[in-house]
Give the backbone structure.
Amino acid sequence: MSHLLHMAQPAFVPPSSSDFFFNPAFGSSFLATKPVMLVMFSVILIAAFFTVSARKAAVVPSRLQFAGEMVYGFVRNSIGKDVIGEEYQRFVPFLFAIFTFVLTNNLFGVVPFMQFPTMSHIGFPVSITIFVYLVYHYVAIKKKGLGRYLKEMCFMPGVPKAVYVILAPVEFLTYFAVRPLTLAMRLFGNMFAGHLLLLLFTLGGEYMLKSALFVKFFAILSFGMAIGLSFFEMGIQCLQAYIFTLLAALYIAGALADEH
Amino acid sequence: MATTDDGAFWTIIAYLISGLGFWGGVGYLADRYLKTNFLTVVGMGFGMVTALYLIWVKFIKETPPTK
């Protein structure tokens, strides 16, 4: 079987992380690369969509207005209200911006001709995470003061005093390092892996299509997998946008909560 | 409710990572300092136990009524 594959053409080059780097479309600035342009496009797209959907707001909503309100309502009620509670209203714009931004950029991964989830470049998830990180620490310090915030964070009630020596550093590390790390890495990892998987089946299918007749049959399977996985990816992309926003809300809720 | 379950899940993961990371790190430094080679693993195990205890206190043990 393998000699059949190698007969006609050079060996298959599997997709790798180098497939995630693009040359600038023009000039030599990194600002002209595909991911950056996709991000800019996503901002325009989101702004345009929600401006248009809210412009002629009517009591009986048009289809577009309904779609816009559905997304907003989802973030406001299912994420903001349910998780943060009382003071949720002032965080809704923040959460809404995160959700729509991440969702749009994720979905670029399966949109024909774009086909690149921006969030599979670690820099983008990291920069959103920095915002979330600053917001939840700021909110907590403003509400409780730095001393009380740290005290509540590291010394939770219901534990014998001696154990604090063991637990406090773990809690501290969780709040200051692991939370932002996992937040960024989860989004990045999911998008990266998903895109790599789609690349593998597409490139593999293309390669097999050029091979011997017997192998061509398998190309159909490979392309079929790519299409199936695209739908699967779409689910993951929505889910990851949701989880990212949900966790941002949870961290804010934790920062606001009175533990004592 | 689904939202709190998701939150709990990721909180637990975060605790496990920091427990493993912190006490594993302490063990690693102790290994370096004492020129031994088993304290990293011991530290990691200890960190896991710590994290599990933390999770138990936070999620399973009944919290006393708040004042």
About this structure: Chain B has two helices and no strands. The two ends of chain B are 26 Å apart (CA to CA). The helical segments of chain B are 2-34, 39-60. The interface with chain A takes residues 1, 3-4, 6-7, 10-11, 13-15, 17-19, 21-23, 47, 50-51, 53-54, 57-58, 61, 63-64, 66-67 of chain B (CB under 8 Å).
